[in-house]
Amino acid sequence: MSKLKMDFLHSLRRRLVLFDGGMGAMLIAAGLEPGRAPESWLLKRPEEITTVHRAYLEAGAEVIVTATFGANRLRLASSPSGCALDPAKLNSTAVRIAREALSEEKYANRFLAGDIGPTGRFFPPIGALTQEEARASFREQAEALECAGVDLFLIETMVDLREAMEALRAVRDVSNRPVIVCLTFERKPRGFFTLFGDTPQKAVDSLLSGGADGLGANCTLGSGEMIELACLFRPLTEAPLLFQPNAGQPVIGEGLPTYRQQPAEFAEDLKALAQAGANAVGGCCGATPEFIRQAHDRLFPVLPFLH
Fold first, then answer.
1. What is the structure's pLDDT at 307?
2. What is the pLDDT of residue 34?
3. Distance from C-alpha of 116 to C-alpha of 277, rounded to nearest angstrom
């Protein structure tokens, strides 16, 4: 096991680790046009990506995530602005941009996660995606992130455990770096399930046996519901758990979602997530650097943190 892998996993197991927040909303606020692939700004507006990374680092995030959520070949192909983009170039460029933000000496102890999101397609019976197509698309992305030098991988926002497993297998094909896999759950009358009916227990059993170093949930749920989900996950495993809730439920206005939760409330809920057994916390949709700053200020006066 590499020293860097040991360093990250040691941090994750001995204390709370703070991840960053959302990227997409920050780029929209900076002028990203509706319908344009956010990853296109890695080439056209790299300075905007750097600005977001630095804002999260200044807020206290110990892990920042590359702007590569949709930078797999299948997802890019679904967007007019993304179909002509080269996934390998996008992912390597994203790592370089993030490393520039991390280059200051005061950030020497922070980590860079290579972000892998879903393909946007579905397996039968809903869609025609095959395991081979999914895995090839994820492997191409994972290999580019690995070669560019990320510290760990974050597979996130997966609504289908089957797709999450293909992404995990693809990463394990090319890397032995730490991998955390986060599914997206919905709260139903009978409990928490993914869109395809996957339960926390099934996620734990499948992902850990498949080689994940940690797991958890992100997106869809607000911070209050995410606390309930964390309380269900913790008794199921001793593996590290990451939870990244949205900043409340979105309100749609003029075609764009607005998140109404206040940073202080969100930060208090992240504190409750830590008390529920989370090893790492962060933010998803609607969570800006101010959310992460307030979380850091509430969490780390009493918990160790690597500055």
1. 34
2. 84
3. 25
pLDDT digits (tens, 9 = 90+) for 96-105: 999 999 999 9
CB 212 within 8 A of CB 246: no
Count other Cβ atoms within 10 Å, centred on residue 176.
12
- How far, in Å, CA of 24 to CA of 39, rounded? 10
Q: Using CA atoms, how far apart are residues 67 and 41, in angstroms rounded to an integer? A: 9
Strand ranges inside 22-151, DSSP E: 63-65, 111-116
Helix (H), strand (E) at residue 302: none
Amino acid in position 90 = L
The CA-CA-CA angle for residues 233, 187, 280, to 5°, reads: 35
Per residue in 10-63, pLDDT (tens digit) is 889 889 999 999 999 899 889 999 889 999 999 999 999 999 999 999 999 999
CB 216 within 8 A of CB 243: yes
Residue 303 has pLDDT above 90, yes or no: no
The strand pairing partners of 242, in sequence order, are 216, 280
Evaluate the omega torsion of the peptide bond into residue 125 and state whether it is cis, within 30 degrees of 0.
Answer: yes
Copy the structure tokens of residue 266. Answer: 């969100």
C-alpha of 126 from chain center: 25
Block residue for tokens 């040691």: 10
CB–CB of 150/179 below 8 Å? no
Closest CA to 165 of 175, 155, 177: 155
- Half-sphere exposure in the Cβ direction for 122 (13 Å, CA): 8
Residue corresponding to tokens 């994940």: 212
pLDDT tens readout for residues 116-157: 999 999 999 999 999 999 999 999 999 999 999 999 999 999
CATH superfamily of 3-299: Homocysteine-binding-like domain (3.20.20.330)
Residue with structure tokens 């869609």? Answer: 127
